[in-house]
Design goal:
Elements lengths: L13 H14 L4 H9 L5 H6 L1 H21 L7 H6 L4 H4 L7 H20 L1 H10 L5 H18 L4 H7 L6 H14 L3 H14 L3 H14 L7 H7 L5 H14 L8
Helix pairs in contact: 2-4, 4-7, 7-9, 8-9, 9-11, 11-13, 12-13, 12-14, 13-15, 14-15
């Protein structure tokens, strides 16, 4: 099947890959049901997959080729963006489990794959994802933040960071911490992101949110100097993890200061 010829690995057969891309584009919208079916189903039952590392590797290879097929299909697949966003919801639950466990990977595989497909759609997915940040369901808001975090690298859309910044005040704890993580990962607009993250460190009632805010400030490094008072205060927090994250952030923020090397 042409999907199996899409490039994968270190030394792909680019002639076969080019032919596969041409085949995907030639099918156009007729390829969509096949690709969506690959997202929502597995080729084996979970029990069978877990019995063999090779079978799991084969499923992961198939998933990567599915993402490549969506990328090759381009605009013809954009009608599926709303459906793919709806599939993000389980990532909210996956955040509380270990992604390294095979059972967890199988349980949330479709959601993860939907996110990867949205990422390769780039700019076309940005508007729907920004709207998803306003959804009533916190699971959708959570998933949208995570995808936008990675989509920014492709689209460089200047609306993404301000939209995620607003989620630092979300009523849901998990949406707040994933937003803090995203801001640190993207690492731009320090003049607005750093004060907002410092506010989280000072006042957010949830330790998990404060922890991710501190990790984000660490990534901003010397650009986060205005947050130093809040970070220093966190070094005496009653939570030992927060104290550790705060100390790491202080070191990063003061990295260019005299006498800190």
């Amino acid at each position: 099947m042409w999907l199996n010829d899409l490039a994968y690995g270190r030394y792909p057969d680019m002639e076969k890959h080019s032919a596969a891309v041409k085949a995907v584009r030639g099918m156009g919208v007729d390829a969509i049901p096949i690709l969506m079916n690959r997202i929502t189903t597995t080729s084996e039952s979970p029990t069978q997959l877990l019995r063999s590392e090779l079978k799991r590797d084969a499923q992961m290879l198939q998933d990567t080729q599915t993402v490549s097929a969506f990328e090759a299909l381009g605009p013809a697949s954009h009608s599926e963006i709303p459906t793919l966003i709806g599939l993000l919801a389980p990532q909210y639950d996956a955040a509380g489990e270990s992604p390294t466990e095979p059972e967890c990977w199988l349980k949330y595989r479709s959601s993860d794959l939907a996110g990867r497909v949205l990422e390769v759609m780039g700019a076309a997915a940005v508007n729907p994802l920004l709207k998803a940040l306003e959804e009533k369901d916190p699971r959708i808001r959570f998933g949208a933040v995570g995808v936008l975090e990675n989509t920014y690298r492709r689209s460089q859309d200047d609306r993404i960071v301000p939209a995620i910044l607003k989620r630092l005040r979300d009523e849901d704890t998990q949406v707040r911490w994933v937003s803090a993580r995203a801001l640190g990962s993207i690492g731009v607009l320090s003049e607005t992101c750093v004060p907002a993250l410092a506010e989280c460190v000072r006042n957010d009632p949830e330790g998990n949110v404060r922890s991710y805010a501190l990790m984000a400030l660490k990534k901003f490094g010397p650009r986060a100097k205005v947050a130093l008072p809040a970070v220093m205060a966190a070094t005496t927090d009653e939570n030992s993890d927060i104290r550790s994250y705060a100390r790491d952030a202080v070191k990063a923020i003061q990295a260019d200061a005299p006498g800190t090397r």
